[in-house]
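Module 6 notes. Inverse folding takes a fixed backbone as the condition and produces residue identities as the prediction. Think of it as a translation problem where the source language is geometry and the target language is the twenty amino acids. Below is one complete input and output pair. Work through it position by position during the lab.
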């Protein structure tokens, strides 16, 4: 085998490995979520925009992410959820809202 072909093969393998590794680490939280009853709905959009709906009323909110933490701010109050391995968002202990599963 020629050494430049081997270098290209190693480089291509490395790039493929790194892109697969980082795609899992930086997967987006954007999407629609709801609780088990379907009464609480959350939509996370690009640019940190969010909409939280409860019992037919929707409120504009914002969100930020830091690792597996998703902080949602509505009316000046922030609740920090933890992204689970299945993509759902777990509320903090004692919260009045249940687990939000991605639709």
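Target side of the pair, the amino acids:
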């Amino acid at each position: 085998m020629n050494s430049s072909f081997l270098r290209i093969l190693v480089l291509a393998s490395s790039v493929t490995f790194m892109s697969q590794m980082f795609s899992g680490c930086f997967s987006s939280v954007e999407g629609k979520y709801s609780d088990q009853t379907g009464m609480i709905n959350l939509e996370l959009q690009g640019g940190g925009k969010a909409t939280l709906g409860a019992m037919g009323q929707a409120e504009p909110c914002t969100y930020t992410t830091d690792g597996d933490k998703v902080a949602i701010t509505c009316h000046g109050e922030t609740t920090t959820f933890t992204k689970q391995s299945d993509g759902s968002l777990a509320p903090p202990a004692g919260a009045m809202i249940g687990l939000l599963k991605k639709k």
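Reference fact for the lab report: Residues 24 and 49 are 22 Å apart (CA to CA).
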